[in-house]
Amino acid sequence: MIRQNGITLEEVMKMDCMKKCHIIAGHRGVFNTVSKVNIMADPDALEWVNECEFLLTTAYYFKQESLEKQKELVRRSAQRGLSALGVKIRPYLEELPLEVLETANELDFPIVELDDSLPFSDIMTPIFQEVFNKQTSLLQRIEKIHEQLMNVMLRGGDIEQILQIVADHLQNPVMLHIEGKNIWRQGGGKIDDQLWQALPENAKQFLEHAEKRKDQGQFLEDQVTLVQKRIRRMTMPIVVKNRVSGFLMAWAIKTPLGGFDLSVLESATTTIALEVLRQMSIRDVENRYRVEFFEDLISMDSHRKEKALEKAALFHLTPTDSFMVLVIHGEEKSTEMSGDLFDKINWIHYETEKYLRETTVKSLMIFKTDSLYVILSSPLEKELQRLALAYGKEILSRQPKKQAHLNFRVGIGRCYIGLEQVDQSYEDAIKALQHGPLIDEPQTAYFEDLGIYKILCHPCLEKELNRFYEKTLAPLVAYDEKKSSELLKTLEAYYQQGGNLRKTAQSLYTHYNTTLYRMENIQKITGMDLTNHKDRLNLEVALKVKKLLNR
Asked: Which residue numbers delimit the PucR C-terminal helix-turn-helix domain (predicted)?
């Protein structure tokens, strides 16, 4: 990587101390960064050198060792990330072997022929001085950028302004992925349209893979192919409370990305993390007020409800509008701490706002432990119902992959006119959430679709339902358990097939006479006559009661 915390080899070669020196191989590495200068008397020194070092030596080693070992020295130097190898060729040799120079050319690793009359100290001291001056200048620039970023925060600016500062200093396009959305900024002027259009897909691919990576909290630098060009990319995670809340990405399209750019990204991600933390704190306080408002609104205490109605304007609710409540409940499949509450809040906020942006429907979201309560309102009752049902069914399909460990379910309450009736819609939504599986809607259930269960699920009926079940279906269930028969299954199939015995037999893959025999047994055990419409209705309701009671 081209680091800007030093000087390039090209700049080194222009210094006075290097006037009689020249590059004899690996010319394409002329932009390598030199951050240190070191001397090698023994090839074992390669074990202790660092990246971006300009390593000085004599040709003594090249004179003593075989051609293969000489080439190996060049390969090892390149692998260690050295910026270049400076060699005093004379008096040991007249020139380095051609094979050694070819190896350096293949690796784009520069070999510099040093003036044999020039002491190493006369090379090291000026280069160190130049590197020190460059690093001091960079530190001053980084400090200035940090001040700019903090000033944005202190003035109450937003993340978009922070991102623009980053793009301007990097002179390259940058993207911030946070709160379920991507924010783009360009720096260094307009870039090629094809490249600009290729960036979102490139970012999307990274984000999809990032969710699977265990080390997603670490800085990543790689090369990507965009429009048949190899382009360097830097990705810095946004870490808040030891959790990755997003990523800041930059592509080296206009100018190279180096150490200075990395420092800018680090400073920016720290500032963005502070802003995210601030927003989390604000949302936490706001949510506490919403929770209090919602609990008062659905309370049976008339004084609490009246107090909530008086506060409606504070939450941008019009008391005379139509209202519907959705309950979104998440159950963790894993026992591990997921820590995804903030992600869930952001996801719901972002998707809800996007979904309702161009409608008359307003939303108020309340978060409590593992559930989210969404109050939707509109002066247009029909539009509210249509959008609430569509939103309730679609929201799960937009769930991020990283929340896949949660089993989200949605319950949708009926539409009521007047804010004072929100408690009714809330109760409906809870019942829809609980009993959705009874109507084969385990993920998203609308209260109106519960059919007869809307009546049966009333709490005051529980005792009576138990008695009804014991007198009607319980003997049949007990018989099945004792005899290992399939009478209950046969009865269910009978109702599913509209009372047609032939279709019932076909659905069960049994002989017609077998089915007929089972139906006669069912009537004997239950004491019910299936030709009598009252008994037939009682048994059908009993099957639904069984599901409701989870027997």
From this structure: 487-545
